[in-house]
């Protein structure tokens, strides 16, 4: 009953936000690998990259190819409006028989996707083997519902009710093929030539490593592992735990990419790179043999402290040039509410380690979580200042309430989100810097945190070459403040508080908190996990499985 050879799929990577990402669409490429391995014809449309393709162009291509199934990889919830409009247009103007499947973080809102947007099936979690089993559920081009019900990790409508087929056991990550062929992508975009001017703000020692690279080398974001050892309350997590490939498999893969695409700089995009000591020890030994520069896009502060000797070895005897550490806050209260399982002291120790080794690092801070206020913002400012010697423009964002996170359920419980679809539409096609659709989950209006973000940006600067970025941000900042003064939705008292903080850095008076601010992970365990519907769909809606 393998219908692979007769089925046609279209895999669509929708526009994530307002500009093309440089992170390769690994999820789409993995699914395409899985489908082609079982004989399925696949047409790939990378709409996040090809912004010239309008909806009418996409519809024309679908009409010409007439796929049996259209799969959409929605790694962020900001793609909801696009998904709904696409499905509506296809079913209205092309064919109602085309099956729409969706994977990625947005499937935490499977009820809305299926009930409001017209999605047929949501794929929960890692889907390489799930999609291959899904293909086996076809007899010719006919999908067999009884067979579909046996495939773990799916949500779909059965007998007019939502049906969850159950949690899927995680496979050994070494059995899932790595992405070796990027011919479906524009490698000039995703693997651009190294521009040494991009590293002018790095410490001199790290700049010299880049300058020693031969001209014509490229850079790339590469994944060799999966997951994270923690479950922060602002973070989506539909697959628990962290998994790392064998060292032999990892370096066989890296060597192939380095040779094929002439890479000189690799940024490891794994969500959390440091985990087991024996693996990291072997990684350090092997990476030191390669004449490349590299950095880590996700490392916990406690892992930097715990494995300081390997960080030092890579910085002094290999090509390590930068590390991104998710500090998140300088307040212990906020770290606890975020369920970071880390202390401010450990964050400070990690900063001191990378400063001492002249490793470039970007402070990453989240504002606006429940309980966040003036005191906590000042504490975050202090930890940013501790990073100054080797850091660039700080990465400071206001907490986004994303489906599948405990923070989302906190907002739902406190009725900050009353219409889920309206909320998804309000955040569609927006990046983390656009606060127009962001809701405040703290006692202060969202504008307070927008102002604080700009102040912290300015306070994070220490090099003249970076002032241009601040000046550019300040133009938008002044326009933003002007809009605040004209807004009828903000009280006069709040306007005065915001403007005083913006220009004087003075804190504002605390008002009574509107709702419970217990740590969100405890709220999730006590309240959300009790609420399970009769058909087996967890009320946490496919996050933290």
In a nutshell, what does this entry contain?
This protein has 545 residues and is α/β, with parallel strands linked by helices.
Account of the 3D structure:
- By secondary structure, the chain is an alpha/beta fold.
- 39% of the residues lie in helices and 14% in strands.
- The protein has 21 helices and 18 strands.
- The strands form 5 sheets. The protein has a 7-stranded mixed sheet with strand order 2-1-3-4-5-8-9, sandwiched between helices.
- Strand 17 (364-367), helix 15 and strand 18 (395-398) form a beta-alpha-beta unit.
- The longest helix has 20 residues, at 467-486.
- The two termini are 31 Å apart.
> Helix segment count?
21
Largest sheet: 7 strands, mixed
**Average of per-residue pLDDT values:** 83
- The side-by-side strand order for the widest beta sheet comes to 2-1-3-4-5-8-9
Extract low-pLDDT stretches.
Answer: 462-472, 507-545
Q: Which structural class is indicated by helix and strand composition?
A: alpha/beta
**Beta-strand residue percentage:** 5-15%
Terminal CA distance reads 31 Å
Given the C-alpha coordinates, what overall shape results?
A: globular
Question: What is the radius of gyration computed over CA atoms, rounded to a whole number of angstroms?
Answer: 24 Å
Q: How many DSSP-defined strands?
A: 18
Secondary structure: helix percent: 25-40%
